[in-house]
Design brief:
The chain has 307 residues and is an alpha/beta fold. The chain has a 6-stranded parallel sheet with strand order 2-1-3-4-5-10, with helices on both faces. It has a two-stranded parallel sheet with strand order 6-9. A two-stranded parallel sheet has the order 7-12. The chain is globular, with a radius of gyration of 19 Å.
């Protein structure tokens, strides 16, 4: 019998979470997608039979930036919806003590008042470019609350902001904004072209801080209501680009492609409940986290130039 199962444990956030759990002496089962495809119910059933966990973190997701969400909205909706549904049902059947489901800031309505409060989650439709992804994740919240009501399951739902840090995905067409900025500024020292006009704001959380939040919530939060996970600090994309340029040493030209979408106008979470309910407060500043991420990316390229 395994102590903890972490779906997506070999991925970006999942690998940091696994490291933290193992450092605390937990026995962690990390499934590989080549062995267990969570989109298929039979694979998820076999996973729970093999792992026999008491605590489950459902971190696995199909995710990406605006470009990826626009290119594959059906896949983002279908895969995320089914993975969460199968994990929830099999956790019930296996008698799991607690299930932690990971949502997304993309669940919030497009024009949510800033800072986003958990009570505002149902006050409108999500931003169009990532609505299929956000709605699939929102369904996990509803499913978890329904299973709590009918079966007495302990299911909690956390809403993290945009994450960044070492081991992030630096793919040329399927990356979030920070890894995309870092890759472009290090790979193209003369000029980078960025989407939109730079006016939207975002909030970012260093990946190790998020792993800490997940472990704290897994240990001490048992409520039905979703909880925001973030730094509580807002920055415009244009200012972020200037900061990444400073950290990477980029001295070239930044060109804004106004024909590309901006995405949601503003994003910033009210993180009061995470502090009150399970004592989480982000401790890594954005500059410090960017410096660590850039150092990791440079060292990774040095070891594997084709990465």
């Amino acid at each position: 019998m395994t102590d903890v199962l972490v779906t997506g444990g070999a991925g970006f956030l999942g690998s940091h979470l696994v490291e933290r759990l193992e450092a605390e002496g937990r026995d962690v089962f990390v499934p590989r997608s080549s062995e267990y495809d969570l989109v298929h119910e039979d694979d998820v059933r076999r996973l729970f039979a093999d792992a026999r966990p008491q605590l489950v973190y459902h971190v696995a997701a199909v995710a990406g930036g605006i470009g990826a969400n626009r290119a594959e909205p059906g896949r983002f909706w279908y895969a995320n919806l089914l993975m969460g549904a199968h994990v929830l049902e099999q956790a019930r059947l296996a008698g799991v003590r607690k299930l932690v489901t990971l949502g997304t800031i993309c669940e919030y309505p497009k024009l949510t008042p800033v800072p986003f409060r958990e009570e505002d989650l149902w006050e409108g439709y999500p931003e169009e470019t990532n609505a299929p992804y956000g709605i699939a994740k929102k369904a996990h919240l509803v499913g978890g609350q329904a299973y709590r009501d009918q079966y007495g399951m302990n299911v909690i739902h956390l809403l993290p902001v945009n994450l960044y840090g070492p081991r992030d995905r630096f793919h040329p067409t399927n990356a979030h904004v920070i890894p995309d900025l870092i890759r472009k500024m290090l790979d193209s020292p003369e000029q980078v072209v960025l989407w939109g006009d730079g006016s939207p704001t975002r909030e970012f959380l260093y990946v190790e801080d998020c792993a800490e939040a997940l472990t704290l919530a897994g240990e001490s939060y048992d409520g039905a209501d979703p909880v925001n996970i973030g730094s509580g600090e807002e920055i415009a994309i244009r200012e972020l680009a200037d900061l990444v340029a400073d950290v990477t040493g980029f001295e070239g030209e930044i060109v804004w492609d106004h024909d590309k979408p901006n995405g949601q106008p503003r994003r910033q979470l009210d993180v009061t409940k995470a502090a009150e309910l399970f004592g989480f407060r982000a401790t890594t500043t954005l500059r410090e986290g960017l410096e660590r991420t850039v150092a990791w990316y440079r060292s990774t390229l040095a070891l594997n130039p084709s990465a």
